[in-house]
């Protein structure tokens, strides 16, 4: 080997090494750029998802408040219905008492009607007697 060949080989070897180092650096740079873009897109997607979740949470909070208000109204209605049903049992016993009193009143009225009919019969007999005496005189 000549003395000229050694520097040439060193330059050639150095050039190949520099080319390989630059190539590896370019590949690393390309990979890092793609990784940055991928991570950045993932962060953007995560931010959009979080915004949508926050919006849905606010919407659902409103719906939950509305449902709570409806449940409170339904519970108030159920309480009113329960009070009415409890009152109906009291009313049922009162109605039974009123029916009993009406039936007693009907019996008393029938007795009173019998007495009136008896008085009417005696009045008619007395009237008949008085008319026959008036005709006879």
Automatic annotation (TrEMBL):
Coiled coil regions in record: 50-108
Presence of the UniProt keyword Membrane in the record: yes
Transmembrane regions listed in the UniProt entry: 6-31
Domain of life where this protein originates: Bacteria
Keywords: Coiled coil, Membrane, Transmembrane, Transmembrane helix
Protein name: Uncharacterized protein
Lineage of the species this protein comes from: Bacteria, Pseudomonadati, Pseudomonadota, Gammaproteobacteria, Candidatus Kentrum
């Amino acid at each position: 080997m000549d003395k000229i060949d050694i520097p040439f080989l060193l330059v050639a070897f150095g050039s190949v090494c520099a080319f390989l180092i630059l190539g590896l650096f370019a590949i690393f740079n390309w990979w890092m750029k793609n990784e940055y873009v991928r991570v950045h897109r993932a962060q953007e997607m995560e931010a959009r998802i979080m915004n949508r979740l926050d919006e849905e949470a606010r919407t659902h909070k409103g719906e939950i408040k509305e449902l709570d208000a409806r449940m409170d109204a339904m519970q108030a209605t159920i309480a009113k219905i329960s009070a009415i049903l409890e009152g109906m049992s009291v009313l049922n016993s009162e109605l039974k008492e009123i029916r009993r009193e009406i039936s007693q009143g009907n019996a008393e009225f029938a007795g009173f009607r019998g007495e009136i009919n008896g008085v009417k019969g005696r009045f008619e007999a007395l009237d008949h007697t008085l008319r026959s005496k008036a005709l006879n005189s």
